[in-house]
Amino acid sequence: MHVWPKAILFDLYETLITEFDPAAPPRPSIATRLGVEDAAFTAAWRHVRAQRLTGILPDYPAALHAICQRLGVTPDAAVIAHLHRERLAAKARPFTRIAPAIVELIQRLHARSIKLGVLSNAAREEGAAWETCVLAPFFDTVIFSYQVGCMKPDPQVYRLACARLGTLAADTLFVGDGGSDELVGAAQVGLTAYWAQWYFVPWPAEKRSAAWRERAARFPALPTPEDLLHRLNTVPTP
Predict the structure, then answer these.
(1) pLDDT tens digits, one per residue of 86-138
(2) Domains, in order of start, for the chain
(3) What Å distances lie between residue 15 and 138, 166, 206, CA to CA?
């Protein structure tokens, strides 16, 4: 006999969907189109990260305006509008090519009446296409950080997710690639955390820091989506 969790929370990017596409054509530099240096733009983008992900900056154009103001340039309105359309399209693309193994995993979990949730550190444009994707009907709750004003690994956001699912942390799993210390945050609240490696491994090494890998490696690894089902099938009743 096996014990099933009452709910499973999934990270979104690089867990349910991936942005990694080696065949994607290169796009012109955003910094160049805004009239700033690439290094300066990158630093400013990092500076506004928390404001983007918690909704203080309500959308992508607001983030670009904040960056331009910080760097002392006046952006062209048409350029901002074009960059916004481009980003919405880019962020929608991963939702159209979800791996079949992920779709099967979610369908099988749903068939077992396990409650399912998404908990994602995401700005508005990054979650905009969720409702259009094949996975959306199977999920009981979806929390994007920009909607609730806090983000992983803040304990508050995990507790909010469990409350929306109607489960205790002890009865809930968290599955993610480990970015933003999400696995550490989940475990500190009492969720059982698993390291989803299926999208992590193909990414270029420079996209995954040694520190990130070291922290994520503290948790049980799931090399493939099927490994989550295998683990659930082999957890004995206490």
Answers:
(1) 999 999 999 999 999 999 999 999 999 999 999 999 999 999 999 999 999 99
(2) 7-21+98-233 (3.40.50.1000), 30-93 (no CATH)
(3) 16, 23, 18
